[in-house]
Amino acid sequence: MIKVSHIWKSFNNQTVLKDISIEFDQGMINLIIGQSGSGKTVLLKSIVGLLDIDKGEIKFEDIVYNKLNFKKKKEIRKKIGMLFQGSALFDSSTVEENVIYPLDMFTNMSFEEKRERANFCLKRVNVLNANHHYPSEISGGMQKRVAIARAIVLNPKYLFCDEPDSGLDPITTLRIDNLIKEITEEFNTITIVNTHDMNSVMEFGEKIIFIHDGQKWWEGTKEEILHTDNEKLNDFVFANHMAKRMKQMKRT
Amino acid sequence: MQLFYHIGQYFILLTKVFSKPEKGKIYYKQTLKEIISLGINSIGIVIIISAFTGAVITLQTAYNTENPFYPRYLIGLMARDTIILEFSSTMVGLILAGKIGSSIASEIGTMRITEQIEALEIMGVNSASYLILPKIIASVLFNPLLTMISIAVGVFGGWIAGTATGVVSSEDYIYGIQFAFTPFYVTYALIKTVFFAFIITSVSSYYGYFVKGGALEVGRSSTKAVVYSCILILLFDVILTQLILS
Question: Residue B212 in 3-state DSSP?
Answer without folding.
Answer: coil
